[in-house]
Amino acid sequence: MTGKPNQRRNVRVLCNLPAEALGPRGPIRGTCRNLSQGGQFLVGGPFTVGRSVEFTVQLPNGPLRALCEVRYPHAYPEGAGVGGRFERMDREDFTRLLDFLGVPESSVT
Fold this sequence. Notes:
- The chain is mostly beta strands.
- The chain has one domain (about 15-100): Beta Barrel (Thrombin, subunit H), CATH 2.40.10.220.
- It contains one helix and six strands; from the N terminus they run E-E-E-E-E-E-H.
- The chain has one helix at about 90-100, and strands spanning about 15-25, 25-35, 40-45, 50-60, 60-75, 80-90.
- Strand 2 (about 25-35) and strand 3 form a beta hairpin.
- The termini are far apart.
- Residues about 1-5 have low confidence and may be disordered.
């Protein structure tokens, strides 16, 4: 039996970076497990699927701030987390993300 094909448009980069998301009860600190041009996965507190949260991850080249839509929850041995799709971020943050991912800006459409 074949598995579900990976339908991701962007390659994920595994990481283990300090991050936080602003939840309904204040900031929730956690760890960013992976990043792509389209989103992130945060191991941290629970969030409601469909909710938009302010997300910050501490990249080596500076903080990345973005508004994310919570897309799915998932549990790992180190704790529960949520996958989020980037909805909005400043150009400076997007450039910082591309630099971290090793994607040339000229290749982004």
